[in-house]
Design a protein that fits this description.
Length: 168
């Protein structure tokens, strides 16, 4: 007997992980480990704040906000791709990097929907004023994703600020 997934259930596609240049490497590595254990690919998604989505003629394109900054974006993508390669190659999990623009939660959810993702993985921000402001404003990425779409969302703690990770 073949069963059909219930409407709104997560798919059997890749694990989608939100990444950005300078992201703690353990987020990509742990997302890759999770994808490998689940037997699915990993799709890393960078929502670039220096780019915008342009809808024209039924097509959507990602274009730089500042055309003079296109070289910086290309350099950032190349650097991010190398960081991911360094972390993910030892895991032998198939992975790709996609870049897009717009609201981070909306874009991660859109990519996950398009790929019928199994789940979405995001990391927490580092401690400090940015984290406090994020909490006060109520725009924590993991929370927004968990309330705005039907796929499971895994929020990975930042190991660099986990006291247990520092103990012998």
């Amino acid at each position: 007997m073949t069963t059909t997934p219930a409407p709104g259930s997560p798919g059997d596609g890749p694990v989608v992980v939100g990444v950005h240049p300078g992201l703690s490497e353990d987020v990509a590595r742990r997302a890759g480990q999770l994808a490998a254990r689940l037997g699915v690919d990993l799709v890393a998604v960078w929502v670039d704040p220096a780019q915008a989505l342009v809808h024209e003629g039924g097509r959507t394109e990602v274009v730089p906000i500042d055309p003079d900054g296109a070289a910086d974006t290309a350099s950032a993508v190349a650097s991010l791709r190398q960081e991911l390669s360094d972390e993910l190659t030892p895991l032998a999990v198939p992975w790709t990097l996609e870049t897009t623009a717009g609201d981070v939660a909306d874009r991660l959810a859109a990519v996950a929907e398009r790929l019928d993702a199994t789940l979405i993985v995001v990391g927490t921000h580092r401690a400090g004023l940015g984290r406090w402001a994020e909490t006060v404003v109520g725009h924590a990425l993991g929370g927004r994703l968990s309330h705005s779409q039907h796929r499971p969302v895994v929020v990975l703690p930042n190991l660099h600020h986990d006291k247990r990770a520092e103990s012998p």
